[in-house]
Design brief:
The protein is about 5% helix and about 35% strand. It has one helix at about 5, and strands at about 15-20, 40-50, 50-55, 60, 70, 80, 85-90, 95-100. It is elongated and about 55 Å long.
C-alpha cells in the first residue's frame, strides 16, 4: 500500500475500495474484447472510517476492515484517483456483502 493511501482516512461509515482487475479471458479461454462492458463488482477494502453515529450519538463501528473482499453494487460510489490508481468510496450500507475466507 502506498504512502498516500495510508494517510487517507474515510470519514464516518465510508469505505475506500479498489476493484479487482477486469477479466480479459473467460474460464474457457475465450479472449474478451475491450469493448465488452463487464463491470467488476468485487473489490478489496483499502481503508475504513471510524463508523456512523446512532440516535444516541454513539459511534457504531464498521463491520468491514482493510483487506476484506466485498461485493459492490453495479452503480454508485464515488471514483477517486490517488497516485494514478482508481479507488471508489462507498458508504458501508451500500456494500452488498463480504466474502468469507
Amino acid at each position: 500500500m502506498s504512502g498516500a493511501i495510508k494517510k487517507f482516512i474515510p470519514l464516518f461509515d465510508r469505505v475506500l475500495v479498489q476493484r479487482f482487475a477486469k477479466e480479459t479471458t473467460t474460464k474457457g479461454g475465450i479472449v474478451l474484447p475491450d469493448s465488452s462492458n463487464v463491470k467488476v463488482l468485487n473489490a478489496t477494502v483499502v481503508a475504513v472510517g471510524q463508523g456512523a453515529r446512532n440516535q444516541n450519538g454513539d459511534i457504531v463501528p464498521c463491520t468491514v476492515k482493510p483487506g476484506d473482499k466485498v461485493l459492490l453494487p453495479e452503480f454508485g460510489g464515488n471514483k477517486i484517483e490517488i497516485e494514478k490508481k482508481e479507488y471508489f468510496l462507498f458508504r458501508e450500507s451500500d456494500i452488498m456483502g463480504k466474502w468469507s475466507e
